[in-house]
Amino acid sequence: MSPLSALNNFLRGLLMGAADVVPGVSGGTMALIVGVYERLLQAISDGVAALLKLGRLDAQGGWQGLKAVDWALVIPLAAGIGTALLVGARFIPGLMETYPQESRGLFFGLIAGSLIIPWARISTPAARHILLATVAAVVAFGLVGLPPRAIADPALWYVLLCASIAICAMILPGVSGAFLLLVFGIYQPTLEAVNARDLAYVATFIGGAVLGLGAFAKLLTYLLHRVYDATMAVLVGLMAGSLRALWPYLADDRSLLLPQTGDPIAVVVMLALSGAAAVLALHAWSRTRAPLQPADASS
Questions:
Q1: C-beta of residue 13 within 8 angstroms of C-beta of residue 223
Q2: More confident residue, 40 or 144
Q3: DSSP 22
């Protein structure tokens, strides 16, 4: 692993971790944008398979499985994600609260601009792909319209369950793990636990995340190998439907509003366009560092 490659993957991890802190933005979307999505899923799937072999006391098979993991990607990426989560937990929620419309406008443009990325991966777009994308968009649109909750002191078993579900969204483009934590009511307690270094809470959350991540990564890897084009179409729909959560003008109950007198409009539009331009530039940069490979399976 060259120092330059490690630095590039660390920067990708920073972007993924920062995205995971923002309700409505998925780290999986960012992984797709920067061109490491399939590699990351495969690395997670390999790691889980190796751990299962070790759990069955197959030391040799487990060791061989661990050697097969793409550690050149995983280690710097994980370091970047962890760094971004620690830093972002302190600053991003404050920015979202102080500048809610401007922040959502920026992220709206970022996700909207990234829709072209998975769609361009479909080898031969057809009517069935449009149908799949439409259905996925409707599902995501309804999901992100659910009202947030707040639980002051969640039980650890509940934290474990929520983490195992939310982590699936964090690697699924278009669905925000942070938003699911809001819906489950543990978004703020989780940020407070990270900032307060509450080891019991954090360890429970990580345990749930590992369980959910392992199972879901294997499922996604299977789908990408067997029905690549159909999977990409669904990802496009999930990303499109999730734009509801990032519409700049929302009521307290998360219903959609038109801009009112006094609302920032020009700056929101400029930020949205900047977000779209930034994500396309980021995708172009990523392709020069890790060119995308053609899919070996289609729908």
A1: no
A2: 40
A3: S
CB-based contacts of 104, cutoff 8 Å, min separation 6: 24, 96, 246, 247, 248, 250
- Number of independent structural domains in the chain: 1
Q: Domain span at residue 225? A: 3-289
C-beta of residue 80 within 8 angstroms of C-beta of residue 12: yes
Average pLDDT over residues 66-75: 89
Give the Cβ contact number of residue 203 at 10 Å.
13
- pTM for the full model? 0.73
Query: Does residue 22 contact residue 191 with C-beta atoms inside 8 Å?
Result: no
Q: Domain for residue 23, yes or no?
A: yes
| Cα Rg of the chain (Å, integer) | 19
CA atoms within 13 A on the CB side of 211: 13
Contact 247, 104 (CB under 8 A): yes
Residue 23, pLDDT score? 63
